[in-house]
């Protein structure tokens, strides 16, 4: 069991539990369910280095040639006729093992979102994509997330982005978001939208609503923990049309497909719960959750996300 809180409340809870159950205090958290926890003057670092190394060892990829990105730049996986089949059970097991790594590895999120769409009938190209993720792990198995101290610990920021009609099989769009609390990355998601969007603004608007729902949940969570945040949520979207629609009080034909999402976001804007600061496309962190980008862009955004490797040689 992991117990957290201030010293007084934590001690009170531990005393109560020790009266009810036979238990032992193991001290500061260091390892839990494959997640390693390290502390320093900079903050708390979470990684799954041992889990990643064990996975590479089990799959025989310990001596593979490493790569800098988990998915090849511009790659679009799809279902093609006459493709060579692969071992379905092995594919499912590998993807399942890799998905557990995504608890501390947001850099794997988009690649895993793509390969998990073919669990029912994987082909050779899909297995090759999984093998590339393993080769990327070889490059930095100890990479993880650093949580640093921040005075403004109640601030909530969301970066949302969408790859419009990017799926080759059905032309559905892929949404992605990163959420930050106090400047630290806390949640992330990459998911294909359920419907086909007729414009990029429509797809981006659905992505904004998805990210805002996550941020509102975090706001309520902070409130339950005793931190009533009065600061508006900062929602970063680089699509000008989607931001203009959010501020426009008039309903148009082009927005009728996202009418509910439009009213939802407009209500939060009017109540000063959320604001939409301008952001350049080259600064949109969620871009790596929606498409396969170059190694230079990928590396730049990982630094901004607070990802590092304390096990890497200096």
> What's the overall average pLDDT, rounded?
87
Uncertain residue segments: none
Sheet of most strands: 5 strands, antiparallel
Strand order of the largest sheet: 1-2-3-4-10
Shape by Cα distribution:
globular
Indicate the proportion of strand residues: 15-25%
Total number of β-strand segments?
10
Radius of gyration based on Cα positions: 21 Å
Tell me the helix content: 25-40%
Number of helices: 9
Query: Which structural class matches the secondary elements?
Result: alpha+beta
User: Can you write the helix and strand succession as a string?
Assistant: HEEEHHHHEEEEHEHHEHE
End-to-end CA span: 35 Å
How is this fold's topology laid out?
Layout: H1 7-20, E1 31-32, E2 35-39, E3 43-47, H2 49-58, H3 88-101, H4 109-115, H5 124-139, E4 144-148, E5 156-163, E6 174-181, E7 184-192, H6 200-224, E8 233-236, H7 240-247, H8 259-270, E9 274-275, H9 295-304, E10 307-308
Parallel strand pairs: 5-8, 8-9
Antiparallel strand pairs: 1-2, 2-3, 3-4, 4-10, 5-6, 6-7
Helix pairs in contact: 6-7, 6-8
Please give a structural write-up.
The protein has nine helices and ten strands. The strands form two sheets. It has a five-stranded antiparallel beta sheet. Strands 7-6-5-8-9 form a five-stranded mixed beta sheet. By secondary structure, it is an alpha+beta fold. It is 37% helix and 16% strand. The two termini are 35 Å apart. The mean pLDDT is 87.
